[in-house]
Design brief:
Blueprint: H1 3-14, E1 18-22, E2 37-40, E3 47-51, E4 72-76, E5 81-90, E6 97-108, E7 124-125, E8 128-129, E9 133-140, E10 154-160, E11 168-177, H2 179-183, E12 189-198, E13 203-217, H3 225-245
Antiparallel strand pairs: 1-13, 2-5, 3-4, 4-13, 5-12, 6-11, 6-13, 7-8, 9-10, 9-12
Length: 246
């Protein structure tokens, strides 16, 4: 190896390392629902299940095939309920960028969406049942109740259905930059939550390719190594210059 190649190799060794890291396990659901936790509000019918093919897991309603691989996660039921699928993840101590990404199928078989500030399918207001037909994706504090919408619990709402949205759509790819959020919680554990509530009629929520991908950077230590290496590199460069002149 000549002196210039040696210098380049040294630069490669001491340069800040930048590499991609994935914080979500089994985000494509090819291992079923492993690494994920399901929660269903008491009295709910149905739950999140593994979806494959083009029929929903319970009612066999027409749904799109998983967009990647053979499996996705999907809610389905023959009665009302509130369903959550979540995974906790740990934010590293340093990062340069972070993106939340997922593919979502919305299959609302009712004639409308209703998005009250609760995930309780049996909520009552002034003696009347609260219509609740919605899906949402959030990042939460890990200590939160799985169905909480409290301001201190929900750190980010990344997606929510709203009245007037298309009733059936997807799988649609959704991506959001969450660098600022994760940078404010370095070294902490947070929770990614997919939630669906229905008390009007059948609602399927399909999830695939869930990912929190980040660019992680490490810095050169302040122990004099950088200075010594730079001096060595400078000497090699000078030696190479003199060798060409002789």
């Amino acid at each position: 190896m000549n002196k210039w190649n040696t210098a380049i190799a040294l630069v490669a060794i001491i340069s800040p390392a930048v590499q991609a890291a994935e914080l979500i396990s089994n985000g494509g659901f090819e291992s079923g629902l492993s690494s994920w936790t399901r929660a269903d509000l008491i009295g709910s019918d149905g739950t999140f299940s593994t979806q494959s093919g083009t029929a929903s897991p319970v009612n066999a309603d027409p749904v799109p095939a998983p967009p990647a691989g053979l499996s996705a996660a999907m809610t389905d039921a023959q009665g009302p309920g509130s369903h959550v699928l979540y995974q906790d993840f740990t934010v590293p101590s340093t990062l340069s960028s972070a993106a939340l990404q997922f593919d979502l199928f919305v299959g609302n078989r009712a004639g409308q969406f209703a998005s009250p500030p609760t995930l309780d399918f049996a909520a009552i207001d002034s003696g009347n049942a609260v219509l609740n037909q919605q899906a949402r994706v959030d990042i939460l504090q890990p200590s939160a109740d799985p169905f909480s919408l409290g301001g201190g619990d929900v750190l980010l709402n990344a997606y929510q259905t709203q009245p007037g949205d298309p009733l059936v759509s997807g799988y649609n790819h959704i991506s959001q930059d969450i660098t600022g959020l994760l940078s404010a919680h370095l070294g902490e554990t947070l929770r990614l939550r997919f939630a669906e509530t229905d008390n009007i009629f059948t609602f399927q929520l399909g999830v695939d390719n869930a990912s929190i991908n980040l660019g992680q950077s490490s810095t050169v230590p302040d122990s004099g190594i950088g200075s010594v290496t730079l001096l060595t590199l400078g000497g090699l460069c000078w030696a190479g210059r003199r060798a060409r002149q002789s």
